[in-house]
Amino acid sequence: MGRLLVRLGVLVVGLLAMIVAGTAAQAASSVEKYPTKKQSARQAFTAEERQEIDDFVAGNVLFTLYHEAGHAMVSEFELPVLGREEDAVDSLAALMMIPEEPDEQQDAWIIAAADWFAMVYELDDSEMEYADYAGEHGLDLQRYYQIICLIYGSDPEGFADLAEYAELPPERAERCPDELAQVARSWVSLLEPHEGKAKKPIVVSYGDPGEYGDAADVLRESGVMEVVAEELSTTFAFPNQIRMVAEQCGEENAYWDPDARTITLCYELVDGARLLIVDDIRAR
Hints:
The protein has one domain (2-282). Helix content is 61%, strand content 6%.
């Protein structure tokens, strides 16, 4: 169990170090060239703000890809899931991104993935409807706190400030190390029998980005999809050919299609992440 757990915790190490420079150059330049709807004038960003933008985009793309890969594993390996599958693969994605040892860059990425849900919640001032409670996903703030809890549980002392900033209730914070351990035990026990190499490497492709050329540039130049595909292909013995595709979807989304055996990452989601953090920085 230990070997695979370490493997899960370092999936974003190694080749992903090569992502940072490409993502930074593309994301920063595209942000300044294409301001948001809220502000038409070009605005310069500090080095710290550029890094924040880069981390937010990279972290959310990584989390989304690992989340959808979780759905693929449940489907392809016929894994049992107790409770909502969406909650389970959220926890898996977090587990795969939380570093085994303290790492400032990886910490920034997983925290950015959590922040997405808090920021979306803050922007949505509409009243809740029955359909919101009946959805297959948890509520945005629930997803935020679940990820924050797992991050905190990995290093309570190191992430004490994060727990305080997030206003994680003390009674929940106390249980977070055990929650992380339970998530790790559960997923490792399910995935250990499927450790190995995929029958065929996961294939990556890019569709026509249309108006989302900047999002496509970020993905291509960073190589994030290729890195994730290679790491998954050499860690898990997928029995069938899996495809990972970036394309226009008409909405901010990502999904696993079990019939086509395809993980789709929508350009709109990548662009939406960029706009979300840029608007947040400009509103401060």
